[in-house]
Write a structure and sequence with these properties.
It is built from eleven helices and no strands. By secondary structure, it is an all-alpha fold.
Length: 267
């Protein structure tokens, strides 16, 4: 089991990123960087619209729960990370309120992908926190299983960077929002990992009845996640197919678990 006791260098890096994000937030470079990004973008809108979906809390839960072929520990960790990250983001938004780009910039100065967001604070980005939590939990899971390779780690980090940066690309957040959001997401995921592993028993000690209850709980969770996914208006019409894919992933994973539960019941 990988250790979550971060070395001082990691804490210093986290503090440095937060400090950089706050400095960027207070400087005019934040706005100039944002407008430069939108004046030089060459990536299709379709890519950013789909990438940004993976920052939603329910999307993080769908992916991690479907990845969890064990007995719900990673699903539980993702739920705690989403809740903890949400609390940190809410506190930070109240402490450092800043309007969204669409609320202060001329519409002609940048491009909006999907529906523009005018309400709620911009600093920090909850989607960026979700992207960081998603990647961190997947890396921890692969590391624990001994399946983490440099290639997989690189792909996951690049995925997380694309999801986080998509919030700037779609015109919903400033660059500083993303930097701070990523740090909060990483801290939330590490905190969640420590919680689910504190005093837990090994999976081998669970009885057949307990395992069955876990599987039913995971089935119920995935049905709920699929319902939320299909019923959510993300404001990104270009990503409607990917949204359907995520909902279908939750349903297929649920059916796989049901087959295992019913198979054991009939054995």
């Amino acid at each position: 089991m990988p250790s979550t006791n971060l070395p001082w260098s990691a804490w210093m890096l986290a503090l440095a990123l937060v400090a950089f994000g706050i400095w960027l937030h207070l400087s005019d470079l934040n706005v100039r960087w944002f407008t430069w990004i939108h004046s030089t973008s060459v990536v299709p809108d379709f890519f950013w619209a789909n990438a940004t979906l993976l920052g939603f809390g329910w999307a993080v839960l769908i992916v991690i729960t479907a990845f969890d072929r064990e007995h719900g520990r990673w699903a539980a960790a993702s739920m705690i990370a989403v809740v903890l990250g949400g609390v940190l983001i809410a506190i930070a938004k109240r402490m450092a309120y800043h309007p969204r780009p669409a609320a202060v910039l001329e519409a002609s100065s940048f491009s909006v992908i999907g529906e523009p967001i005018f309400q709620s604070g911009s600093m920090p980005s909850g989607h960026a926190a979700g992207a960081a939590a998603l990647v961190a939990l997947l890396i921890l899971a692969l590391l624990e299983r001994g399946q983490l390779t440099k290639l997989r780690a690189t792909v996951l980090v690049l995925l997380g960077m694309c999801v986080a940066w998509s919030r700037v690309a779609v015109g919903a957040h400033w660059p500083a929002d993303v930097v701070v959001g990523v740090v909060l997401g990483l801290l939330a995921s590490l905190g969640a990992y420590r919680v689910v592993n504190f005093g837990t028993r090994s999976q081998q000690s669970l009885s057949a009845t307990q395992l069955k209850h876990r599987m039913w709980w995971l089935c119920s969770l995935e049905l709920g996640l699929a319902s939320v996914c299909f019923g959510t208006d993300t404001g990104q019409p270009l990503a409607i197919e990917f949204q359907g894919f995520l909902g279908g992933l939750a349903l297929l994973s649920c059916l796989w678990r049901l087959r295992r539960v019913l198979g054991r019941s009939g054995a």
